[in-house]
Specification:
single chain, alpha/beta, Oxidized Rhodanese, domain 1, 6-stranded mixed sheet, 6 strands, 27% helix, globular
């Protein structure tokens, strides 16, 4: 389900766990995780996951203001276009002491 190094994307930060798209969506659909999309508004306008619940859009450019709106409990799976920005956000949350965070391996491009 989760893995230590990415399979799809090349960029990795040690300590960040990754999850594949199908496993991520299963967790979200079963209400065991939230998918947090850190892409900018223009990127989301081109396409986004077809989730009706468990999907949160929090653009990286406004992330510090919006991070307070994220659920305090439950796994957060961060996603961007290709997994580079989202892995950085995931690493930041780990540094802040939150352990239930994952990076969507390959980002939206892998969906």
């Amino acid at each position: 389900m989760t893995y230590d190094t990415p399979v799809v994307q090349d960029y990795h930060i040690p300590g960040v766990m990754h999850i594949g798209a199908s496993d991520a969506f299963n967790l979200v659909l079963n209400e065991k995780a939230f998918l947090v999309d850190v892409r900018e508004d223009e990127e989301v306008a081109l396409g986004k996951p077809t989730l009706t619940t468990g999907y949160i859009h929090s653009p990286l450019s406004r992330f510090m203001q919006l991070k307070e709106q994220l659920p305090e409990k439950g796994t957060l799976i961060f996603m961007c276009a290709h997994g580079i920005r989202s892995i950085q956000v995931t690493a930041w949350f780990l540094q802040q002491g939150r352990e239930d965070v994952l990076n969507l391996d390959g980002g939206f491009a892998a969906v």
